[in-house]
Please model this.
Amino acid sequence: MFDLSGRTALVTGAGQNAGAGIARALAAQGAAVAVNDLVPERAEAVSKEITAGGGTAVPIAFDVTDLAAVRDGVGRARAEFDRHIDILVHNAGIPADFGQGQFRTLDPSRWRAPVEINLFGAMNCLSTVIDEMCDAGWGRIVQISSGSARTGSDQGLSLYGAAKSGVEGFIRHVSQEVAPFGVTANTLALGLQTNAAGEHTAAIAARIPTRRLGTPEDVGAAAVYLASPEASWMTGQTLNLNGGSVTT
Model:
């Protein structure tokens, strides 16, 4: 099950954390993976790790908010693998300025970055690969989101939450448009991940029913399922991956 041999994947923001876990997991199931990151060195490191383990990967650095750069990067991946992208995982979502803070204290100059990377970044990437998926009669779109899209908090996440809410809505509508062509589109909404450390993180983890934060491997496993042939009847859904911290 979950065999991705012969498939080609693009994972954005894959140079670290959950994105790296997704890239490793897809490669382990046989996919050739284009490892994207804004920082070339991070993309190269993850790509080398995958190839050292016997997988197939190439580093493809570009900024997902730049449509021309996305098109160029996808073209490079297509040339490297000699086939189109079958699987898109849009994981990039944390800009240099996260825009965290109480909304009424935020200067308007900080409003755009979270929306650009999460919503327009997804649009840039999806628009560049979707026609070839539909023409081939098979494709998988996996959007990484956050519980912040549907659960409010007082932690200064209004901009990030708004951006994630927007992209979840976008994916739901796209899923309906491309379903007749054998292409699925789903969202993984992540809970807190293990890219932080310290007593504060331990205290947060203690409040999660599983008593731990999520790992890159947890996210990778869920992404593999959504990218697999076995998930052909799963589309238009938002799956919560959060250790039970929010249930539906």
The domain at 8-194+215-238 is CATH 3.40.50.720 (Rossmann fold). The chain is about 45% helix and 15% strand. The first strand starts at residue 8 and ends at 11.
